[in-house]
Prior knowledge:
By secondary structure, the protein is mostly helical. It has helices at about 1-30, 50, 60-90, 95-110, 110-125, 130-155, 160-170, 175-200, 205-210, 215-225, 230-265. The protein contains 11 helices and no strands. α4 packs across α6 and α6 crosses α8.
Amino acid sequence: MKQKLGRWLVPVFGGLAFLFLLVPIVYVFAFSFNDAGRTNLSWRGFTLDNWKNPCGAPGVCEALGNSLQVGLAATLISTALGTAIAVGLVRYRFKFNATANMLIFLPLATPEVVLGASLLAQFLNIGAELGMGTVVIAHSIFCISFVVVTVKARVASLDPKLEEAAGDLYASPIQAFWRVTFPLLLPGIVAAALLAFAMSFDDFIITNFNSGNLDTFPKFIYVAATRGIPAQANVIGSAMFIISLLVVIGGQVLAHRRAKMLAAR
């Protein structure tokens, strides 16, 4: 009896939890079709005009463009540095290895309010002008930790003998890295880059401390929420969700095809 009850309860509670997570997404998608007018707090009718003109709300596309620029720049910087750090921490042993590992995890454990305020104090002390540059630096700093943690797991799963075999075949360390190690690390690096971009694009607290007059998409949403988020912002949010979903599905399809090809060999 208990086993039968458990078989029913687990899927039911899992389904309820899944629905709970999807409710905000469904709300955002539904209200992207709302004939909102000045506010988007209540349903006033179905329209496709918001999707035809996603830049209809003043400042929404400018804020989106800023978020994309910051996200791409922070992703490139944090992925490059984080991958190098991850390889160094796993492949090499040095005196302060344990300390370095601990310091990498500090940004993950530090509250964003503390990290954002600390970075703001540093920028003000050196006289930096708050804007795009300071936000990219701030995002790169906290995204590096996510990249290192993700890539480290991939590096740890690789057999060092593969690099040694490349060396036995007269490959230089650089050639061994680019022709052997890097292709094997690429799935982990891509996953880390996607995670870094998502964290950067979604961040509000650290951005709010260090952006000055720069308006990003999360800041635009925060300010607009007091008068009802415009339907065009819901359109952009829905489009980003759809794109993310397609990327995940595409990755799963490619991984499945690759697994079938390897099995066929």
